[in-house]
Amino acid sequence: MLLKVSPKSTADEEFSSHDLERQIVDYTDSSTRFYEAPRDFSKQYAHIYSARLCTFRNILTPLIKNKWSNKYKILKLCDLRESGTSCVIIGTLFKLQELKPSILKELSDQLEIIPQPTRTHFVHDSDSLVLEDELQRIKLVSDVIDIHQVVTGVVCAILGSEDEDGIFTVKDVCWPGCSIQKPLPVRNEDRYIVLMSGLNMASKSADQILSLHLFLEWMSGLAGTSYYQEEVSKIVRVIIAGGVFANHSDESVLNESDVISSAELVDSLAAAISGVAPLDIMPGCKDPNDVMLPQKPFHYCLFPKATEYKSFRRVSNPYECEIGGLLCLGTSGEPVKDIMRYSNLDNSQEVLKKTLEWRHLAPTCPDTVPCTPSVDTDPFIIYNCPAIYFSGNADEFGTTLYEGEEGQRIRIVSIPDFCNTKSIAIINLANLECYSMSFS
Amino acid sequence: MSNKMDRNKTKGPPPKRFKSGDDDDENDTPFSFEEQLACMDTGDIDSQEIFEGEGPENQSSNMKWSRPPPPILTPNRETLIFQQLDIDHYYGSPMNGMPGSQLAPVPIMRMYGITSEGNSVCCHVHGFTPYFYVTVPVNFTESSCNEMKTNLNKAILEDLRGNKDNIKECVLEVRLVQAKSIMYYKGDSNITFARVSVALPKLIAAAKRLIERQPLSFGLMDPQFYETNIDFDIRFMVDTSIVGCSWIELPVGKWFLRTIDSKVKPESRCQIEVDVAWNAFIFHPPEGEWSKVAPFRILSFDIECAGRKGIFPEAKHDPVIQIASMVIRQGETEPYLRNVFTLNTCAPIVGSQVLSFQSESEMLSKWSDFFRKLDPDIITGYNISNFDWPYLINRAKHLNVQKFDFLGRIKNVRSVIKDTVLQSKQMGRRENKTINFEGRVPFDLLLVLVRDYKLRSYTLNAVSYHFLQEQKEDVHHSIITDLQNESEQTRRRLAMYCLKDAYLPLKLLNKLMCIINHMEMARVTGVPLLCLLTRGQQIKVVSQLLRKAKEAGYLMPVYHSQGSDDQYEGATVIEPKRGYYADPISTLDFASLYPSIMMAHNLCYTTLVPPNAQNQFNVADNDVTITPSKNMFVKNHIRKGLLPEILESLLAARKKAKADLKDEKDPFKRSVLDGRQLALKISANSVYGFTGAQVGKLPCLEISGSVTAYGRTMIEFTKSEVEKKYTKANGYKEDAVVIYGDTDSVMVKFGVKTLEESMELGKEAAEFVTAKFVKPIKLEFEKVYYPYLLINKKRYAGLYFTRPDKYDKMDCKGIETVRRDNCPLVSNVMSTCLQKLLIDRDPDGAINYAKQIIADLLCNRIDISQLVITKELTKNDYAAKQAHVELAKKMKKRDEGTAPKLGDRVPYVLCCATKNTPAYMKAEDPIYVLENSVPIDFNYYLENQLSKPLLRIFEPILGEKAESLLLKGEHTRTKAMVTSKVGALAAFTKKKEKCLGCKTVMPSETKKALCDHCMKKEGQLYITEVFKLRQLQQNFSRLWTECQRCQGSLHEEVLCTNRDCTIFYMRKKMGMELDTQENTILRFGQPIW
């Protein structure tokens, strides 16, 4: 056990140095769909919604049959001619939110004198919900959907009927749910992966550098007893989930010159980690990279030193890979934060759980999270059920084991912001146990 | 008060909510129009009984459309009370038992109105006879009257060619009356007039003409005519004391109901049709209980036409494909009836009725059935008078749709289109089409807005953004035909636009309270509602003057406009001491200056002593006032003037309305009262204008000249009094200086540093000076400007304080913030500069900001939408060449389909061209400019648009050096060079990549981003470029998602081409710049290994 080293052994053992080999497990990068997202800016966002709806229509149709047997017709809104008859509609949810920031309003405000209050949370009692299919939208009323627990962009099937006023009363709802999981491999020996995020290297005020040094020493096996060092050698991979240059805290404004001056430090750090373990580095929404999801990997020119290491990999955000037969999927945290901004969900594990049930990594993308106008597919749909599902730059460490209806076991991890918490997350691939470790 | 009101008015309906909350907080979400439609209340018309259609055309096909069924009425036992909305007259046969001539034809008045239950009423008023007055010689006797009657009758009958109306007796009566002329004070003795009553109103003009030609044959000498030029409807209203939109009561037993069984059959489409004698009904002045408003039905509609590519729709060729209608009851906030008539099928729209038709003729015919069934009282829409109505009527005529044009309330009268020209001082010359809808009031919102508001643009988009902060999705007319031809879904989309276009005018009417304000104006001035829109200011004053004159026994002479060039001196101003004042400036205003001068000095037609006639009428010197313009008026103890009386009652009424407003809690009643006090204020001010209007009904330059002369002297007097009293010598802190004075206000610098002190002194000075004036002239302290920027005469800006703790607003006069021929950049820069100067009190900041904008402009960092100038293409050949006309021609050559057509607004920017190219050749389509990166002529914008207004506001601060500082400084040195993709040279130039670090030209074969020298800074330069990319991406994403939300659909592409929208060009530009930046970043190499 990496953390629970029995205290009695420490006293006896020598603090001598051993040569230990870093353990290796199989690794495949499965993020192709994120790397290859089309980037044609003459396109609009309608296509990504259409692609999303189309995919989910195929996913939902069998589920609807399961849930409500063949009792109700699946209709499109345009076929909804008689009110009162119960039917099923598949569509994208859209939340009307008064407080949602609008660039139009901001532009008109430039000419006004009264400044608008800046908000970070956009939920209001008056928020209302509509469902939209390929052609039309309809207003929903429901006791079964709590409007403050859903967000724009989620696709679902609703059961209910339209009333005289053209409002649809929802009696039941069918979420896409978590997809079927590939059987998890059986592993007897402990193998660990380290998840961290929010290094915030461009910040001048932060005090994370010392902790990072401690982390580096620990990674390199320069700490603890030889038994402990052996445990450390079982760390097979480090994933940094964004926030490398700047973290996600709302008040941090990214300053170009600070980023430039920290570039060398980031490179050295990446090189140092890569020197001792395979490293995957994901960009975050405030890092010097695009803002649109999926974010491309960091450019190699930012890492002249680290690029020399074969173990150094710049990866996309979101990122999907298979480590030792376990599928890992996650983002640097922006989709989760955005969902929290537009709903009353305030716990990031809770949000992650919801997104699993919605089978979608980032439903509010493109509405409130910038996104490339992708054409034929929606890359953010969770096509394969992961074993490890993470999100970076959380306020604090948090983890739960999600157990699906069909026996899926998914380790949900909110990776803490390193700069603020000085901690990282560690997952044991053998049993999906997860801990945090602090370096303060 | 208005705050709460506005909230209620602009609000959407309370939406159904999840997690049923019981909070009262209503919803303000700007929801998509579709949801708004969906959750509107579906109406609550009692559908117990079907209204029996009378005429063959009144189809009772839809119960929801018709009015509530009328009660069963018994004239012998009940009164009938209704609010009249329109009054007209027609020629008909006299009715038994009614006063007036018993020989057909006689003029019969018709009043149309609504009962408080919402039933429509048509009331025929019998027995009112047209008449006029003419002066008679001294020896003219009763018998001369008979003689005159016979002769005139004979003369007119001979004169009537054909006599279509079969008039048997033209002159009904000639009798002598004693009265005074309204013109001049000529002592108290009456003179004798002959009052000539004729059979029909149109005979008045004929009679006048014939008498003028041969006065002697009628026993007259040098006849002067009085009141021959009064509209018959106004004459009727004056004589019966009715004012516009007032309540009428028909007393028990005095009225007769028309039914299918009665002797006289109904002629109208109204539910209740009655007859009454002109002197047998009761008029309720609009006060107290009778200031209420009946539940009028207001219909707003919009049509869509499928035009051909490149041609503005013509009724002869292009079909009407959709008609959307929305109906609201006055006083409610949401329409209770929404429907759309479509040609070909259309998918259902939640919350609205869709009626689809396979043939256009059927659709038009069914719509006119709907219109008649609905029986609207007020018809509104956007530009319906000049587009929608003429198009519908002409189209129906072209398709030979039977009975489409029976749109008024009288069964057998067709609605026809007439061209009218309205010439008014207020609006200039306007050509309009008018259409008669007997009994209904066409209330085109566009006309109302053009009349009452000064805006940059009057498109529905611009107007709704301005007043409602709502952008409207706009579909280019070239796409409409495609949408129509595709499927029922695309037609549904079209129907959504159409419904929205019908809904917005209602929303605006509600927000701006147009109907209420106009109704109050009609009540105050006594003219029908329709007159307010179709006529100028004069008729309102005439109506009031006639009412007063009648009461006091005066007659109004006919004035023959001589088009004289007599100019009286206008209001002058105290020469401004220009500058930027950082100390508080107190402003003293004369309350209702011109009206109070007229009241104070008893200035009126009736009090004006004719030149050199003082002795003739025995007026003592101390009984007259000699005005500063050397005119003489008798004082009010000799004779009280009519105009002062009118003004007194107007101002007293205003005072009362304002007092009532304070106490009233009900928001709707408050809006009525507020509308009234505003109407009263405007009316009071227009009285002065009436006396000065030289092509008016009764101009009197002696009055208007005296008024302005008094105004001038009073301003001067105030200045000298204030400067005399508030001096150091008299124990005040500083010597007061009047820095500027305009028509009715004086700006005083007391030299004190705090708002409290300046307000205190302001109040004191106002009282001090007021005491020296004749009542009711009153100098009021109203506001302090702090700071104050005085640019020139009528051009100033300041922060407006009425209480010391917080400013009320920023007040700008005559500064380029709304001018329509400027690009938006100018007004935006001006308002920001003024904000910085006045609110932030940061002159340096303002200068730096202006410099920054100039630098941004020269470096191409200004968004193109800020530079777009828009002009309407009204005709193709102007005498002088104009930029937008030339551009339209150019665009037509490029693509006939999307080129602007006659009536379209042409947006353009000015582009670089070779030296000496005239400006009109430099205009270019903004989209073309974006797509081809055509260089914009920034110098033009700097020199012709920005420089003058900027210098104007900065000169008072910077003085002489303003120009050199602002326009010639360091910040103007760097200029962006844009290489055009089109143009003469573009074909020969070859673009070579430059190093992103040092801008050296790269060898042509390499694709690298940097030269070898800059390679070592690669990471740093990359980050810089990435930062630009991030900003662009952020904007791109926000702009396009905003458009999706605005159009109310996620799955459909945004088609909107609303060029008035702030983000239209930005959206386009962002996509292009993002592509370019993405490629620039790619020169660093693909990030994937």
From TrEMBL, chain A:
<dbReference type="GO" id="GO:0003677">
    <property type="term" value="F:DNA binding"/>
</dbReference>
<dbReference type="GO" id="GO:0006271">
    <property type="term" value="P:DNA strand elongation involved in DNA replication"/>
</dbReference>
<dbReference type="GO" id="GO:0043625">
    <property type="term" value="C:delta DNA polymerase complex"/>
</dbReference>
<keyword id="KW-0235">DNA replication</keyword>
<dbReference type="InterPro" id="IPR040663">
    <property type="entry name" value="DNA_pol_D_N"/>
</dbReference>
<dbReference type="Pfam" id="PF18018">
    <property type="entry name" value="DNA_pol_D_N"/>
</dbReference>
<feature type="domain" description="DNA polymerase delta subunit OB-fold">
    <location>
        <begin position="44"/>
        <end position="173"/>
    </location>
</feature>
<feature type="domain" description="DNA polymerase alpha/delta/epsilon subunit B">
    <location>
        <begin position="193"/>
        <end position="398"/>
    </location>
</feature>
<dbReference type="Pfam" id="PF04042">
    <property type="entry name" value="DNA_pol_E_B"/>
</dbReference>
<dbReference type="InterPro" id="IPR007185">
    <property type="entry name" value="DNA_pol_a/d/e_bsu"/>
</dbReference>
<comment type="similarity">
    <text>Belongs to the DNA polymerase delta/II small subunit family.</text>
</comment>
<protein>
    <recommendedName>
        <fullName>DNA polymerase delta small subunit</fullName>
    </recommendedName>
</protein>
<dbReference type="InterPro" id="IPR024826">
    <property type="entry name" value="DNA_pol_delta/II_ssu"/>
</dbReference>
TrEMBL record, chain B:
<dbReference type="GO" id="GO:0006297">
    <property type="term" value="P:nucleotide-excision repair, DNA gap filling"/>
</dbReference>
<dbReference type="InterPro" id="IPR050240">
    <property type="entry name" value="DNA_pol_type-B"/>
</dbReference>
<keyword id="KW-0004">4Fe-4S</keyword>
<dbReference type="GO" id="GO:0045004">
    <property type="term" value="P:DNA replication proofreading"/>
</dbReference>
<dbReference type="GO" id="GO:0000166">
    <property type="term" value="F:nucleotide binding"/>
</dbReference>
<dbReference type="Pfam" id="PF14260">
    <property type="entry name" value="zf-C4pol"/>
</dbReference>
<dbReference type="GO" id="GO:0003677">
    <property type="term" value="F:DNA binding"/>
</dbReference>
<dbReference type="InterPro" id="IPR012337">
    <property type="entry name" value="RNaseH-like_sf"/>
</dbReference>
<dbReference type="GO" id="GO:0008296">
    <property type="term" value="F:3'-5'-DNA exonuclease activity"/>
</dbReference>
<feature type="domain" description="DNA-directed DNA polymerase family B exonuclease">
    <location>
        <begin position="225"/>
        <end position="463"/>
    </location>
</feature>
<keyword id="KW-0479">Metal-binding</keyword>
<keyword id="KW-0269">Exonuclease</keyword>
<dbReference type="GO" id="GO:0003887">
    <property type="term" value="F:DNA-directed DNA polymerase activity"/>
</dbReference>
<dbReference type="GO" id="GO:0043625">
    <property type="term" value="C:delta DNA polymerase complex"/>
</dbReference>
<keyword id="KW-0235">DNA replication</keyword>
<dbReference type="InterPro" id="IPR006133">
    <property type="entry name" value="DNA-dir_DNA_pol_B_exonuc"/>
</dbReference>
<dbReference type="Pfam" id="PF24055">
    <property type="entry name" value="POL3_N"/>
</dbReference>
<keyword id="KW-0408">Iron</keyword>
<dbReference type="Pfam" id="PF00136">
    <property type="entry name" value="DNA_pol_B"/>
</dbReference>
<keyword id="KW-0238">DNA-binding</keyword>
<feature type="domain" description="C4-type zinc-finger of DNA polymerase delta">
    <location>
        <begin position="995"/>
        <end position="1067"/>
    </location>
</feature>
<feature type="domain" description="DNA polymerase delta/zeta catalytic subunit N-terminal">
    <location>
        <begin position="127"/>
        <end position="204"/>
    </location>
</feature>
